[in-house]
Amino acid sequence: REKTIIQEVQTPPPQQTIIVQQAAPVMAAPIVAAPDPGMAVLGLGLSAVNAIGEGMREARQENEIQQQKAELTKARVKEAELESRLRNLEYDQMARNYANVQAAQPAAPQ
To answer: pTM for this one?
Structure first.
């Protein structure tokens, strides 16, 4: 007697690519528990200076963003003006060509 053995071929599932976005590093003054009260005040002072620096950086970045938006708006306005000038030049050229074609045709006898 013969035995038939059926084997199923299993294909592995397709691999998925997982992209993990790493957080930006945060720079901050370390928090230090100091036995001396003067050292604790120094740590608070460093934290305050760090916070002021972050605020200044954020203000500068916001200013740069506003400048770039203004420059982009200015560039778009200039682009629209140039497109308008080009359309007018094309229209004038078509009108001149039409006038030249009309002038070159002989007058019809009456």
So the answer is: 0.45
